[in-house]
Amino acid sequence: MTKHFDVIIIGAGLSGIGSAYHLQRHCPQKTYAIFESRNSIGGTWDLFRYPGIRSDSDMYTFSYSFKPWKNKKSISEGQVILDYIKETAREFDIEKHIRFGHKIMAASWSSKAAKWTIKSSSNDAQEHTNYTCNFLLVCSGYYNYENGYTPKFEGLENYKGTIVHPQKWKADIDYTDKKVVVIGSGATAVTLAPTLAEKAAHVTMLQRSPSYILSRPSKDKVANFLHKIAPSKIAHRIIRFKNVVQGLYFYSISRRRPKEVKRFILSQIKKEMGKEYAVDVHFNPTYNPWDQRVCLVPDNDLFKAIKNDQLTVVTDHIKTFNENGIELESGKQLDADLIVTATGLELKFAGGIHFSVDDQDLEVSKLISYKGSMFSNVPNLVGIVGYTNSSWTLKSDLVGRYVCRLINYMDKHDKKQCVPRLKNPSMETIQVIDFSSGYVLRALDRLPKQGSSFPWKLDQNYFKDTYALKYSKLKDQFMEFS
């Protein structure tokens, strides 16, 4: 007999646990289950175990709106974040709803039955099991959990040392007193490099081209002061609002006045590194701020490691790997005992689930995002993807609450299906993630699109989304209930 739930949530990471809370709080009459392909809670924060892994957003916006962040560090270590997610699941009795070791292979919608049929593959058995639900909530993130992205390097087979992608980092990898090369310049590289430098003989961060890097204190003095004088919930709301406004202002001014913002970022690095350091070579990108994500470093740790001669940044291209390390296009040789390929992610829509609606396979690249949460012509399906220019959880909180609004509206009006309909098929569309980063460009043919106007356009603006998802009418000219 096929087991039925009112709602199925795919993924027990940050978004999945948050969405489960909102369901319990706002739709207490509904049954639900969380299907998690791995054997533990946490998603990204359980998968990635490389040294130094931390948030690259402040924790007052990265934490849940309903569970105040009380740690004194605003930029937090990965293990602390994982503990926070697990604590949330325990505190709100969400754990009992999680089915670990269940990977969702396919999801098919029947308009006649007004149900999704979910095909699940259990890690404990070779057979597939079917489940049904009225509403499907995909909280599996946007990247491939099995593998990260590693380019095809010339001569890689000749290298005799250890090479690892951060996504595959194991606790037994020894880098103490070793020569380490970290390939990359993004958020993972600038997190790894100074942390490895604390124990390694020396670390070289090898980048093909620079990224924008900003330093900020790991502790928020204003936040810690407010927590001393105000109840935690009130302090959390004030700090969260402050940080959202600051983040949106920086993103907005970066888009409107990129030259001035670029000049400011470089001036801060030059102030820290001194006139003699080649900032314009190693920290001066060719693109504008927020054409790719701006990397965050806490307490200038990257720059301090460089000044202490623990870390060297090299901007060059790889010619070939050899027995001892890497030969660069410039002719320089980088010897290494350990090479870490912090070369990016592989994007994967909804964990690679095969979707169909009324026996018609969905072409993901032809879907248009509706309010950044649903998809054109796909009923009762919500996908949670956080902000690229701000904290992931700001968006996932809004969408989790939006799902509850939809469910309660359908119950009140005796409706079984809700589906966004695109009335103008000739509307101009662009890539759903408006970035020029390699991981985005490599996956354009496997991702949905966004439109040119509301509600099909993603503004990456928390306040606009708050109105659209929390307060605006559910039944508009595009949303069809039946």
Question: Would you kindly provide a written description of the structure presented here, covering whatever features stand out?
Answer:
The chain is an alpha/beta fold. It has 2 domains: 3-146 and 346-481, FAD/NAD(P)-binding domain; 156-341, FAD/NAD(P)-binding domain, CATH 3.50.50.60. 29% of the residues lie in helices and 23% in strands. It has 13 helices and 25 strands. The strands form 7 sheets. Strands 1, 2, 3, 4, 5, 6, 17, 18 and 21 form a 9-stranded mixed β-sheet that branches. Strand 13 (318-322) and strand 14 (325-328) form a beta hairpin. It is globular and about 70 Å long. The mean pLDDT is 91.
Main features:
FAD/NAD(P)-binding domain, 5-stranded parallel beta sheet, 482 residues, alpha/beta, 23% strand
Strand-helix topology:
Layout: E1 3-10, H1 14-26, E2 32-36, H2 44-47, H3 59-62, H4 78-91, E3 98-100, E4 102-110, E5 115-122, E6 128-138, E7 162-164, E8 179-183, H5 187-196, E9 202-207, E10 213-216, H6 221-229, H7 232-256, H8 258-273, H9 279-282, E11 295-298, H10 301-307, E12 311-315, E13 318-322, E14 325-328, E15 333-335, E16 338-341, E17 354-357, E18 360-361, E19 369-370, E20 374-375, E21 381-383, H11 392-412, E22 418-420, E23 430-431, H12 438-441, E24 449-450, H13 462-471, E25 479-481
Parallel strand pairs: 1-2, 1-6, 2-3, 4-17, 6-21, 7-16, 8-9, 8-16, 9-12, 10-11
Antiparallel strand pairs: 4-5, 5-6, 13-14, 14-15, 17-18, 19-20, 22-25, 23-24
